[in-house]
Amino acid sequence: MKSWSLFPRRSIHAKLLAFMLIAAIIPLITLGSMAYWKSSMVVREQFSTSGEYIATQLQIQIDNYLSQMRYMAYDINTYVSDPTLVVMREEQPKTYTGFLEQKNFERYLGAHRNLDTKGIFIVTPSGYFFGENVINGQDLMREWWWKGLPAKLDEERWIGFYTPRHYVGFQDEAELRNQEKVLGLVVPVLSGYGVLKDSRILIEMKAGKLFQLFEQLEEDMSAYVTITAKNGELIYQTAGTFVQQESDVVWNKPLESNNWMIQVRLPYEQMNRSAEVMQSFFIAALILSAVLALLLAYLFSRRITGKIKRLQETMRLVGTGELQTRAEVDTEDELGRLGVSFNQMVRRIQTLIAEVSRTEQLKKEAELRAVHYQINPHLLFNTLNSIQWKARLSGSNEIGNMLYHLIKVLEGNLDITQELVPLEKELQTVEHFLEIQKLRYGHVFQYDQTGVEDCSRYLIPRMTLQPLLENIFFHAFEDGHGTIRISVSEKEGLVTLLLQDDGAGIVPERLAKLLDPDLERSSKRGLGVYNVDQKFKLHFRMEHGMKISSVRGEGTTIQITWPKREEIPDEHQGNDCG
Questions:
Q1: % of the chain at pLDDT higher than 70
Q2: Which residues of 306-337 are buried (b: 16+ CB within 10 A; e: fewer)?
Q3: Which CDD domains would you find in this protein's record (predicted)?
């Protein structure tokens, strides 16, 4: 024990300094760490600079294409809008003069072409086109994106990237993969003269160079590229699945021409791959030296290695999931501070797990509710239909009507095939529910809705409005007397629904607890309103959902806000249109 007094009691580094010098740990760690840090930093900087450069080149190239297309459309519109320069009086020329006029006009269109231009055409409402005779007008009319244009086009429409099927020589769907994609723009013709009235300018640019840049980012750098329009429409995305991580390196490049946004996302692991190779060699050399140092240190430092083993055992237990385990700290040296840091790390891990568990709990609750409702409704519907039929035979029309509306409400609530339904369909379920209340209470309440027509196609979680109306009749109205108003509006990509009543209102103490996520709900009271709010948060992110305001004796207003989203047509319909 006297020999240990030669070393400072609070410094393990001083106790093991002689043995680490023998094994050359200090120079190896110092030089290796510096070399690894410097080289990995250079590699990451070069990789990041390369990615930034390619993303910028992609932005410049696309902006260049868009600017060219817009300039072509503007120049052509300026030309055809002047009746002193051109007036096309007939689609099919019947005279030599008309033939010359058409040829001169098509030469003018052809003069705007460059090496990257696929085609420039002016298409009349009948499907006849002016330009190079390289497309089939009827095939153009059958293109899915052409069908999607409004009958009266009053502004430019960027079609995005697509494979054209209307060019002469296109054989069948099997050639789609070999066809070069194009970037399309459709602009209304401003001329009000001759056959060009209500026509459209179609400009298509070859997108081969752009897709080469895409492939360079996607294959060489394993990047994920997306291009989205200002309204959120997806223009392009890298094929395959990609899991986004917070550590990803992201470059966002806005396009000046049409407000598209290019996003290039590079996994951090891809940038760190070269550094990891160097790190592996460094760790291998460090381990070999550490083994030698530990063998020498073991002969003289059993007390120290005992502490290390205890700390190692603690780490193993934590690794198996026993997060309540803590390292025993009984010294103030480096091992003691390491134990303190390890305990702090475990506590932070527990905090993170608790936060993740809370989010997962919300999802699990939604899944359990879905499983709970996955009963076979046929027996219930058949039984209610039989009761309705017997009620009508016995002359109980009021009971038959109530059963009819009840069946419609249950059909909407028990249909678990769609979690999101159009607002129009949800309101139909509401109307059947209100018909039941009319049969129950009589015409003692009023119902009014505004703004529904303009927002009826937007999606809303299924079975969200009926539970709120049910609360109104059960808690706000006395014997069904009162007024209910529903108003819907849309602004800046968000849908806002207001549900108002002039009933009894909610006391402030209860109002403060209705949407509290930390409140334990042991009964069904208040559970319906909370579940409706959670549905919106699960489908549209946590920042969306309900806000409730109420004045006792004057009524309650529920405001629900969620992102605008429309139902996507199925793929079979899309293929028919193409």
A1: 73
A2: ebeeebeebeeebeeeeeebebebeeebebbe
A3: HAMP
Q: Determine, yes or no, domain membership for 482.
A: yes
Residue 43 covered by a domain: yes
Which of helix, strand or coil describes residue 449? Answer: strand
Contact 275, 36 (CB under 8 A): yes
**How confident is the prediction for the chain on average, in pLDDT?**
78
Rounded Cα gap, residues 311 and 339, in angstroms: 7
Cα dist from 25 to 34, 275, 284, whole Å: 14, 21, 13
**Residue-by-residue DSSP string for 329-391:** ---SSHHHHHHHHHHHHHHHHHHHHHHHHHHHHHHHHHHHHHHHT---THHHHHHHHHHHHHH
Rounded Cα–Cα distance for residues 494 and 490 (Å): 6
Pairing of strands 224-228, 261-266: antiparallel
| Length in residues, the chain | 578
* CA nearest neighbour of 333 among 299, 312, 313, 303: 303
Q: What is the pLDDT of residue 516?
A: 77
Section 403-428 average pLDDT: 74
pLDDT for residue 378? 45
Q: Name residue 264's amino acid.
A: V
Find the helix packing angle between 302-319 and 273-300, rounded to 10°. 140
pLDDT (0 to 100) of residue 178: 58
Say how far residue 346 (Cα) sits from the centre of its chain: 33
Parent domain of 94: 13-268
Residue 73 sits in the same domain as residue 186: yes
> Residue 438's closest CA among 480, 485, 468?
480
Parallel/antiparallel/unpaired status of strands 494-501 and 482-491:
antiparallel
What are the strands, taking DSSP E only, across 111-266? Answer: 117-123, 129-130, 157-162, 182-188, 200-206, 224-228, 234-237, 249-254, 261-266
CB atoms within 10 A of CB 25: 18
Q: What single-letter DSSP state applies at residue 208?
A: H
Residue 363, classified by CB atoms within 10 Å of its CB into exposed (0-12), middle (13-18) or buried (19+), is exposed
Same domain, 461 and 551: yes
With contact defined as beta carbons under 8 Å apart, do 407 and 384 qualify?
yes
Are both 351 and 263 inside the same structural domain? Answer: no
Does the pLDDT at position 545 exceed 90? no
User: Measuring CA to CA, how many Å separate 61 from each of 47, 132, 186?
Assistant: 21, 26, 20
Half-sphere exposure of 38 toward its Cβ, with a 13 Å CA cutoff? 6
Residue pair 486/550 in contact (Cβ under 8 Å)? The answer is no
Q: Are residues 357 and 481 in the same domain?
A: no
Give residue-wise pLDDT tens across range 476-525: 887 888 999 999 999 888 999 999 999 888 888 888 888 877 676 655 55
Residue that the structure tokens 């300018």 belong to: 201
Taking the CA atoms of residue 372, residue 376, residue 381 and residue 382 in that order, the dihedral angle to the nearest 10 degrees is -150
Same structural domain, 472 and 330: no
**Total domain count, the chain:** 3
**Could you read off the pLDDT of 201-239 as tens digits, one per residue?**
999 999 988 888 888 888 877 888 999 998 888 989 988
Q: Looking at the structure, do residues 225 and 368 belong to the same domain, yes or no?
A: no
